[in-house]
Every structure is written in structure tokens, then in C-alpha cells.
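Hello Y.,

Per our agreement to keep a running log of every chain we model this quarter, I'm adding this entry. I've kept the format consistent with earlier entries: sequence first, then predicted structure.
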Amino acid sequence: MFNDSRPVFAFLLSLGLAWGLIDTVGATERQWSSVPGPVSAQIVRIIDGDTIEVDAHPWPGHAVRVSVRLRGIDTPERRSRCADQRAAALLARNELERLVTGFPTVELINVAGGKYYGRVLADIRAGTRDVASAMLESGLARPYQGGRRHKPQCAG
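Predicted structure for the entry above:
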């Protein structure tokens, strides 16, 4: 998979400049641990059950498009070799879409860059609801704190 971290770096740089967290344009990604937020973001599309694409607005009149992975959860993969996992992935994606539909913006909190294939990692709040917690409550996501992910066996 192509791993271009430039959009993530640009997003984090925008956030850092907006909050005065860095004072040099030549900062590297390794300097970022997280940006507290909240950062207002408009959802562009739901990618899967634990990833969305947003136009984030770190300051008025400025938007940065970035993919955001929800912190603390993992959902089944759309490209699984198992038909039941692909079906579960669609349910998870649809639930995530349901949770954020109707909100003109969501808030990104504790935003971090890093190893997520060109995505940032963040907590996401839609209204007053923590989206990852709602996904866990739905039963369509598993807790995930990094490391090795659960590898389900194909049914049948």
C-alpha cells in the first residue's frame, strides 16, 4: 500500500500552527504526540467502520482533507477473504454512517499522526456522543489499543 504521509503532516502542521504548538515549518512528524483539539471537521465520506475522510477546519476559512482512524476500536475488513467478515464490515460501516448522519460537523480530539497508512488517529465526537464508544456498544467493533489485530476464522 502506498504510504504518503504528506497529507497527514500538512494536517498536523496546520493544527500545530493554529494552536501555536510549533514555531518552525521544518518540523518532522516525530515531533507530534498529539494535538488536543477539538477540531471541527465535515465528513466527506465513510470509508469503513473505523475510518472516515473529513475536511478539517483548524482555523476559519482553512480546510485540510484527511482520513481519520477512530482511536480505540477495530472493525471487520471490507476486503476480507471471508464472506461473513465482509458482511460484518458493511454493517459496521453503515452503523458508523448512522451515528454521524445529521451532524453538520464532528469534532476530532487528541489528534495524532503516525503509522496509520496516511491517516491520523483521533477520538471523534458527533454532538455529545463519543463515536468509538457507540460503535463498541453496537457490538460491531472490538476494542483495539494497537498491536496485533484479531484475525477471525472464516465460517463454514
